[in-house]
Amino acid sequence: MSASAVHSLWTTVAAPGAEGGFTAPHIEYAQLSPTLVVVGAAVVGVLLEAFVPRKARYYAQLFLSVVAITAAFAAVVALAAGGYGTTKAQIAAEGAIAVDGPALFLQGTILLASLVAVFTFAERRLDPDAHGNRVDSFAAQAASVPGSESEKAAVKAGFTTTEVFPLMLFAVAGMLVFPAANDLLTLFVALEVFSLPLYLLCAVARRKRLMSQEAAVKYFLLGAFSSAFLLFGIALVYGYAGSVSYARIASVVDGTVKQIDPALADTMGNDALLLIGGAMILMGLLFKVGAVPFHMWTPDVYQGAPTPVTGFMAAATKVAAFGAMLRLLYVVLPGLRWDWRPVMWAIAIVTMLGGAIVAITQTDIKRLLAYSSIAHAGFILAGVIATRPEGISSVLFYLLAYSFVTIGAFAVVTLVRDAGGEATHLSKWAGLGRRSPLVAAVFAVFLLAFAGIPLTSGFAGKFAVFKAAAEGGAGALVVVGVISSAIAAFFYIRVIVLMFFSEPKADGPTVAVPSPLTTAAIGVGVAVTLVLGVAPQYFLDLAGQAGVFVR
Amino acid sequence: MENLIALLVAAPLLGAAVLLCGGRRLDRVGHWIGTALAAASFVLGLVLFGAMLGYDVEARTMRQHLYTWVPVEGFQGDIAFQLDQLSMTFVLLITGVGTLIHLYSIGYMEHDERRRRFFGYLNLFLAAMLLLVVADNYLLLYFGWEGVGLASYLLIGFWQHKPSAATAAKKAFIVNRVGDIGLSIAIMLMFTTFGTFAFGPVLGAAGDATEGKMTAIGLMLLLAACGKSAQVPLQSWLGDAMEGPTPVSALIHAATMVTAGVYLITRSGAIFNAAPDAQTAVVVVGAVTLLFGAIVGCAKDDIKKALAGSTMSQIGYMILAAGLGPIGYAFAIMHLVTHGFFKAGLFLGAGSVMHGMNDEVDMRKYGGLRKYMPVTFVTFGLGYLAIIGFPGLSGFFSKDKIIEAAFASGGTQGWILGTVTLLGAGITAYYMTRVMILTFFGEKRWQPAPDPDKAASVEPGIEVTPGAVSDHAADASGPHPHESPKSMTIPMIVLAFGSVFAGGFFSIGDRFVNWLEPVTQFEHPHPPISVPVITGMTVVVLLAGVAIAYLQYGRGPVPVVAPRGSLLTRAARRDLLQDDFNHVVLVRGGEHLTRSLVYVDHTLVDGVVNGTAASVGGLSGRLRKLQNGYARSYAVSMFGGTAILIAATLLMRAV
Domain NADH:quinone oxidoreductase/Mrp antiporter transmembrane, which positions (chain B) (predicted)? Predict the structure, then answer.
């Protein structure tokens, strides 16, 4: 008995057959490696902030971010090549994370988009040097009060907010988990992991700081509000099913599991709980994708946030949130299809029309793009509603196409500048095509892709989701979609007309000459847009292969 | 051996590419490159011809599959060639006459700065025309069809600094569009009917489809043929196309391209055989055009336009023969070939005359030229004898056969067609004799040179072009008729040989008919009156035509300014009012249509569109106010949205 004299927690746990015996969770590190790499890099990034001298931080952080995201992408490709997207798709980490085709495809998309976004984050040549120091889009010291002495001192000292890189990596990590989450708690944790850094990132614009901070606060308040709904919905669904696991909930919904947990005897099997809870969870996701009527944060936040952050957010958040929504609707709630489909129909319609209609009267390019992103959320919802495999693959393809167009478009916005920073008012863009034909032409390509003109990725994506929706019996939705596309085309083309057929103004903005970083981001955007538009078949096939969820 | 077919097309295509992309540095040798490649194509054609003669009669068709352009299940767009006896005939005609005309152009275009480009276009034409006749499916044929249209457009408008040439090019292009639409619709109909457009399967299965469909396809093909071959009602462009350089008129607008319609109908014989109504339409078009062209040819004072009317008329003969079915196909092609010789010769002769006459085209200002241009006179005269069907010469054999076949088509139709073709032969003799007398006989009417009334004459005044004989143009004392250089006379002599002997050669032992029979089938015509009687009648009608022309023009002086003439003459001078008709019916009608469409567009469509836009804009403005910037109202919106979401979900379950 001498051994038991040194009684401790460890011995209790280790004791075989003891009361409450504990087996270590089985974690498939290899399958989770993309997320783990990014999380690890984010933690290292925090350490870099603490220990690396100020001058070297920018380069260290940039290097770390690029390497981490590239490595994570390589891991995703390796997993996909290893068959984890198709034949070897599985549920990993004790049921918390799914490793399957959609998850890998979306993770790959998020990582590529993030890589391009890192380039725009790191751009330091757009503004003239302040006190001999290169400046980027972020505040010198985010904590200093705008306009205060401490802010001036920070600018003078040449501080930069290199924390944006680890913040972004944390957000990316959350986004990687979000579409792969296979239980509701993981879903919620992932949501918070990527939302909180985004709130912060929105607040750190170098110019128009008050607007930036206002945007961040709004985003935070409304985000917290929607998170509460989501969490409450999770509680209700748990009450209904007695589990937070997707697979378990699904089997309770379709009636294959009838076992009732005695502790939840009063609530289990109560459909009202399921319906209300499901609707609330959906609402949380619809908030993230910016669907009407949960979209109102979008224009304010897109406008206020630093433009590189807006581009990153608009692209990657949408990919992650739609991924989670697809999994929720296709894996957890397929049994409720007849309940959620009509509601989603309505939301898709108001989202498409609302985004397109309100965009018409916008005068700020960033707000315009925000409403455009709302309309696009509606188009993607049309593909989500298809409830068939083509729906999944079409949405995957659309997200891939859309994210590159978005980042590219916002990157172009950062280039057009006047004395006050970015010249985002549309009137300033008049005649841009005369002065900077290349930049205007590139932006025109992105706008045409947004509008869904053939030979751009926008057309291929829109065609895919509308086709899937039509085959899924949502013909009316497609009609509305095409009408909204026509309305939306109006304001995209209007910008092109403005750029190419209006006389330039005397005091118009100048187009900054970017470093290779932004050039690369825009170049990749144009290349992907054109390749996906001219030869979409390979990627459609890829998305088609990836379009099966594991259960 | 089959692999040479692609080279046949590739040689002139290479020439076109080199000459058009080569730039100025090829200016000095460009014409020789073009001529050499045309000749190379001709030699290849001869080699293939020799090989074909070596094969069994039944196994003479050569095929070459190059690649599949559109490899889709159910839609195979093949780039593949088929060279049978019919195609072979065309290949030899196109490359043979084509090479001669290349040679002729070296002299004719000597002083033109853009001669290299001219030869590039000519080579482009050869390539497209060869593609047209060796294609093994209608789609590829269509490609060649459009290619010759392009080349024709470029060459008619070659002297684009002349507004009349530019207009004529556009006119030819637009009128041809109408016909080309017919061809494309025909191809689409074939595809929906047979699931393919390759010659083999389509023509093989032509009898299996319903007669209605065959008639539709046949009529569309006829429309195409009308456009390309200048048949009524799409004939109006050919006269104006004479604005192009004369070698172009000879090659494209007399010998080869304009006969593509005859090729199309003959090639599609199986379709027409299965659609008697379409065949009747073909015959009617041919008969009407042969008279139409002949009448126009009688009234023109412009030598090239008179010949253009004649071309129209002669192609009318061919179309008519092709419409008669198996008794006529072989004769249509035979007349096509002999016509290719003598009409090309006549045009080259006309070009030679113009070359020596400061580009004067008004025959009333010629006269007595036989003394100054003996070679031109003799070759032109042989071509003249051939085209009027003087016994023993080419035209006699080929036209006589068509007249026999027309009589043999049976019943009332046979009598009508026979009479029309006979009448046509008479008018041909009349207008060609007129051309001959006005140009080469009588007194010279070309001095003194400047004619103050020139602008008032019926024909539009022809400006002096910088092309030919610009060295003479500076000469104010008037034209000095002279014989043309060797490079021009040699092709004329060669063509004259063809004009004289080709018909007889083809007819001995029914050589030509036997040669083509495996492709076109052949039935011996059995006219209701015996063949010698028909031949006799033809000769009588011919002599009558010559005699009338002689009485009218040969006995007294010819006025330099055309007299007012009868109503018919005046109408014929205006191409039987074709342009007036087109203008009133099509142009005015089209203008009215577009005007009313524009009216509807402005009032109705724009009203709806602008109204919608305005209301969307207004809605946008109002919805925008919801975005007031307060986080609390945003939260209310979210809360309300969620409430509705939940309520709707529950409601869906309740329903």
Answer: 135-421
pLDDT in tens, B493-513: 999 999 999 988 988 888 888
- Model confidence pLDDT, tens digit, residues A390-419: 899 999 999 999 999 999 999 999 999 988
Residue A125: count of CB within 10 angstroms of its CB = 16
CA distances from A208 to A137, A200, A421, A423, A494 (A): 11, 15, 9, 12, 27
CB atoms within 10 A of CB A365: 24
User: Does the CB of B614 have a partner CB in chain A at under 8 Å?
Assistant: no
Distance CA B112, CA B120 (A): 14
Minimal CA separation from B55 to chain A, in Å: 48
User: For residues B546 and A497, what is the distance between their CA atoms, to the nearest angstrom?
Assistant: 70
Provide the H-helix boundaries in A1-137.
2-5, 9-14, 29-51, 54-81, 101-121
**In the prediction, which pLDDT does B451 show?**
46
CA dihedral B220, B225, B227, B228 (to 10 degrees): 140
Do A357 and B634 lie within an 8 Å CB cutoff? no
B150 CB burial (10 A radius; 0-12, 13-18, 19+) = middle
Q: Rounded to whole angstroms, what are the CA distances from B648 to A187, A344, B371?
A: 25, 10, 103
Residue by residue, DSSP assigns B251-263 as IIIIISGGGHHHH
CB contact under 8 A, B631 and A222: yes
Q: Give the DSSP H/E element, type plus range, for residue A539.
A: helix A537-545
Q: Give the global pTM.
A: 0.63
Contact of B460 with B300, CB cutoff 8 Å: no
Q: Would you state the pLDDT for residue A278?
A: 92
- Distance of alpha carbon A151 from the chain centroid: 31
Give pLDDT < 70 ranges for chain B. 447-478
CA dist., res. B41 & res. B36, Å (int): 9
Give the whole-angstrom CA distance, residue A484 versus residue B237. 48
DSSP state of A332: I
Checking if the pLDDT of A189 tops 70, the result is yes
Distance CA A408, CA A416 (A): 13
**Tokens 């190059």 belong to which residue?**
B66
Return the exposure string of A462-473: e unless at least 16 CB atoms fall within 10 Å of the residue's CB, then b. Answer: bbbbbbbbbebe
- Smallest CA–CA distance, residue B612 to chain A, in Å, is 10
- Distance spanning both ends of chain B, measured CA to CA: 78
Q: Residue B486 has which token pair?
A: 């060797």
Residue with tokens 């352009």: B69
Lowest mean pLDDT among A4-13, A57-66, A375-384, B167-176: A4-13
Residues B330 and B522 sit within 8 Å (Cβ to Cβ)? yes
Backbone angles phi, psi at A550, to 5 degrees: -90, 150
The separation between CA A444 and the C-alpha centre of its own chain, rounded to angstroms, equals: 24
CA distance B317 to B406: 10
- Judging by DSSP bridges, how do beta strands A510-511 and A416-418 pair with one another? antiparallel
Q: Are A239 and A272 in contact (CB under 8 A)?
A: no
Q: Report yes or no: B642 at the A interface, CB cutoff 8 Å.
A: yes
Give the pLDDT mean for A108-122.
Answer: 95
Distance CA B174, CA B168 (A): 10
Residue A275 to residue B650, Cβ atoms within 8 A: yes
